[in-house]
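Let us practice reading a record.
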Amino acid sequence: MVPTHRIPPEVTLACRRLQEAGFPAYVVGGAVRDLLRSPSDNSAKDFDLTTAAKPEQVIEVFGRKKVIPTGIAHGTVTVLCERESGKPHPIEITTFRGEVGFSDGRRPDRVEFITDLVEDLRRRDFTVNAIAWDPVRQMLVDPFDGQGDLLRKRIRAVGDPVARFAEDGLRVMRAVRFAAQLGFVVEPSTREAFAGALSTLRKVSRERIRDELLKLLSASRPQLGLRLMLHQSDESASLSWGHEGNMLQVVLPEVAHEITDVHHAQVLFAAIESLPRPLRLGALLWPMRRWLASAGAKVLTVPKALGELLDERLKLPSADRLHLTTLLTTPAIDPDFPDRIDPLHGASLRRLMAAHTASTLDALLATQQAFAQAEGDSSQVARLTLLIGRVLDERAKRPPLQIGDLAVSGKDLLHELALPQGPLLGELLRALLDSVLEDPSQNERALLLGKAKNLLSQRNFRH
């Protein structure tokens, strides 16, 4: 049974109002699935309703001022129901419907409103998402044994998986994402239908594919889904490349091209799973570094390739594109180099920190450490752990790392030394920064002005 006390009271009230007006109404979808799977868990959200009432009838029940016609052509409206706090709680309410024709493999050609809940559930993707709950009458409707699949911890298509995936190519991505989120396996006939759905997946918008990929990477067990994208049913299964390829080849062909064997895939997926969620996309793209390094001599090739991937296909925000471009094109950090160069003090460590933004350096080191751990290279893990600790210790001292951290500014030098504007000013500031990276105690106004004067007195000062 669904723990009704975990359903927001305004959702139950909305069901009651529809039923009192003569229309069956149920909570449906992911919220029901999550409440059945973990009755004591508070993670269930998105309490969507389905009802026999048509959109215009829903508007009559709740009043036009409280209803937003978000997808009225497909039977969906959003009702603003008030919470006890007085703040509106938007509830999506969709009319029971059938879907006719999927000529583009993305959306139905026509939607028909119906009065049969079971037929409405029949059009849904997976059995665990095709369960409805009436919180007023405390009645569960589960015509496709979604509860049994929850107990068996498996993802199974409603009806014929080939037909389900032909309707919407994104459903194969949803299948692997649910496997990763829930820790479930994909039922064999559903999994076997993946290969035939790849041509339909190619028709799906890039934004929808990106969103599913990012949800998968944010899951608790992303490698369960990533293995399925390679058509691996378990860790020991061989990679499936086939004549139509696999899901990863459709979504990220640049990455798939660099995964040459099962061991490589296992290392990649284990590294991804060990990293914090914000770093996982960078780790998934990490195999591209090998190709980017080989293409580095072709100045226009790398930015064009990354631009096509990060902007045109993944449609990422500009800040994310910049971060990932830097991450993928910056040489790996040698964890031993500070000790080789200056074992008694940290000048080279500070220069390393000055050469990268904190976010890039942290991402590089963490990702390298994750891959070393996944490879079982304990020596490399230990060295990277030591270097990460040294970076954190040095960062806590807040050393000057950029020209803006100097105790003198460009204006100070112009005024105190009567310098003209020009490249000489920049050269002086870079020289002063180098001196304080060597010895942070030198970052005092008087000392830096004196050093600048000394540098100017050297007739050959041109860095």
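A brief commentary: The first strand starts at residue 25 and ends at 28.
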